[in-house]
Amino acid sequence: MALVDWDDTLRIDIEEIDDEHKRLIELLNAIDQAMREGRGRQLVDQIIDRLIEYAKTHFLTEERYFEQYGYPDAEAHKYEHAFFIVKVFKFKREFDQGKLMLSVEILDFLMEWLRRHIKGSDQRYSEFFRRQGRA
Ligand SMILES: [Fe+2]
Ligand SMILES: [Fe+2]
Fold first, then answer.
1. pLDDT of residue 126
2. 71 CA distance to ligand 1 middle (Å)
């Protein structure tokens, strides 16, 4: 059973963005699965690289829409994206330095991101786009 299932509370109503969020959920479920199979520690390096790739493409996608629709809270939102990137690079640095790094930490961070950012901040721009008649 998946740790997180896609549902309407996650929906942004822009296919490109919803597809990217679905990829993050797949990644999250893959981490959970790996941990339950006792392979979490081995996969940390790979997980971090995938998160960096994800962040690079996904945040650019959202920020492009902000510009296109003149989203007024774009700056605060971009700040949250920057925080995500800093955090993931911190995971990478710690891992490379051989510090103890558990996939459970990454999983906790992503669960919190899902709850606060995707269901919070991302939903707020979605609302704005709807009011603008975009979605
Ligand atoms: Fe997002
Ligand atoms: Fe976002």
1. 94
2. 14
Dist CA 5 CA 9 (whole Å): 11
Q: Is the pLDDT of residue 131 over 60?
A: yes
Residue 21 neighbours by CB under 8 Å, 6+ apart: 10, 12, 58, 118, 122
pTM: 0.92
Ordered DSSP codes for 24-63: HHHHHHHHHHHHHTT-HHHHHHHHHHHHHHHHHHHHHHHH
Ion ligand 1, residue ranges at CB < 5 A: 122
Q: Which residue has the tokens 């299932």?
A: 5
Spacing, Cα 98 to ligand 1 middle (Å): 30
What percentage of residues in the chain have a pLDDT greater than 70? 97
Domains of the chain: 13-131 (1.20.120.50)
What's the gap in Å between 125 CA and the centre of ligand 2? 9
